[in-house]
Batch of 2 targets.
Target 1
Amino acid sequence: MSKIFTLLFVIVALAYVFLLRSFRLADPSNSVNQQYRPLFLQSSVARSLFFLNRPGDGRFEYFSPEKDTVLVEIDYQVGRNPDERIEEWIANLVLETLRKDVEVVVTEQGEILDIEGLPDKALRSLARSTRSRVSGESRSYLHIVYISSSLDASSNTGLSLTANEIFIFKDRIYELSQKANVRSLIEQSTLKHEFGHLLGLEHVDSEDCVMSESVEVYEKRKYQFDAIPLDFCEESLEGLRRIEEDAL
Ligand SMILES: [Zn+2]
């Protein structure tokens, strides 16, 4: 009998290691990841067990009918304040995509060192150290960090590296325009774009869509700054509808 249990244990352990390795490979041609990841994302236990924490991995939690509010924690480096309309933008964004309420907490983080060009590793650790997540049964969680700029994605105005976190690169936005209203538009569209990634959306080809890659990497196209996209196009809206259906 004990041999059977040993055999079972070995099989389960091997399956665990196999899935863990498969899910950690970012290669889109990895078919195990493609096929089974969405199934595992449906369960918060499986998400923790397999460390599923890429942008989009929290999509079912955001859409879950059991979560009626999104707790939004915004932390900013001194001098990299969010736009004064940030709370209004977030509330509208969450209402438009999830039809839910928000609770927003904005905090200046005095202890973040004033350095430019942070590598992804430093960004991840910064996100961990500023996060004061208060878990709640009925709330999902979004963490937004306002910081100088990125080293690994130096042209980016924003970036998402994990399932619940967005970085906004304020110095990069500052370099792009002298005009406050244009900077404000860039910040708003970047925020919307990154939140789209957290909800499971990919880039689209159409450049007048907020999910166009050129929204977060402004060097790719010299924008006419009066035409910065602020809306999800039909392709992205259709994507959101499909994700919402899968979450029910
Ligand atoms: Zn993007």
Note: The chain is about 45% helix and 15% strand.
Target 2
Amino acid sequence: MIGEYVTFQLDKCTGCAHCVKACPTRAIRIRGHKAVHHPDLCIGCGECLRVCPEGVIQSNVESRFPLDKDKTNAAIISPALYSQFPDTMPCDVLRAVKKMGFDHVVDLSFHLEMFQFAVERFIAQNRETRQAPFPLISPICPVVIRLIALKHPTLLDNILPIRRPAVMIADDVRKKLQSIHNITGSEIEIFHITPCPSKALSQEMVLKDEIGSVDRTIGINAVYPEICKHVENIREKELDIYDTDPFANIPNARGPMWSKSGGEINPLRDEGLLAVSGLREVRNCLEKIEMGVFDEMNYIELRVCPQGCLGGPLTAVDRHMAKQTVQKLVRTFGVNRRLPPYKLQRLYDRGWFFANIRPSDFTDYYPDQRRALTIDQMQEIENLVSLLPGVDCGVCGAPDCRTFAEDVVRGRAKRSDCFRLREIDNNKEGNT
Ligand code: SF4
Ligand code: SF4
């Protein structure tokens, strides 16, 4: 089901309501001194994971991953993984992951370059004609897409309709493995090692044509200790820059740079580019786009996590340290373009980069929340709000008084959950 990105182990929950206050989409309430999650409102941002002092909330991204030895197992590496290992060559990180038992380990650098080429082409093609609505919004952060679907559906058409690199590469790897090993797609298991809890359900990722591209997702924090062990051993050995794995391109620093805020737009050769990270900033930015403040911009990179994917809830090291590591990798390896533009242009002209289904097809996500209230119901909410204390005390279990009033009208809460309404209703009964 959409929204099942996190699980609550309620026996440990103290009802402190930190998660209720942190949730940007008001998907959590307190009932009977325990947190209650409403998956139909959840965008998988992971803010609740970050603030829960008791460790009650877990990402549904896998933390254990016994490999099926009867299958060919390939791991696609989030570029953020490289930033977790200071003083380690990216190719050594890939080797360390392979030593965990994967048959193939896949770096994304070339596909990031391909994506960035497609962004430049799309902007150039549409800027003058304005056939696409500007500013274009990056499709990279799945949480941003869901936030738009839930809170800013008028912006869905602004999302760039280009397939995300992880999806392009998953499709490519599956096809290539089928031809190399002469096996069927079902004999291949593709993993994605990620810092992002919103990748919990691969079949519910951002765009519907991504369905089935990745089979399983694992949090970086879950594999970090084991990779550390292998990295130590590899570092002791001779320098070896070659690898026989057909997918282990020698990565440059394009991947690590991509994982930090601004890393997507920095290599682009366009003007009018903006990068915004952090939940609060992203929400402000989306409001400003709706108001037309950024109409002159071409492309806006939005990442919900602070510092970009380096600050993802499922990373293992401090995001500021990770940023240092990225900067060092960029200085050492550079971010040069390595793919021939004429070949990319051919792929672009054939439509290879484009998502089959446009993001606007996601308007049917979050149907309950988007169920229109009648005028009477809206009036009822206003009447209730006028009776409530208005101090957002949270005693009712909702994050604020207006949300509580809406919960009552939508049948999610009882009037008696609020001490003020209880008092009013008791007085009324006493007077009759
Ligand atoms: S933050 Fe939420 S889940 Fe964690 S203990 Fe407090 S109420 Fe329970
Ligand atoms: S993951 Fe984000 S949207 Fe979902 S409940 Fe937690 S804070 Fe709310």
Note: The chain has a mean pLDDT of 88.
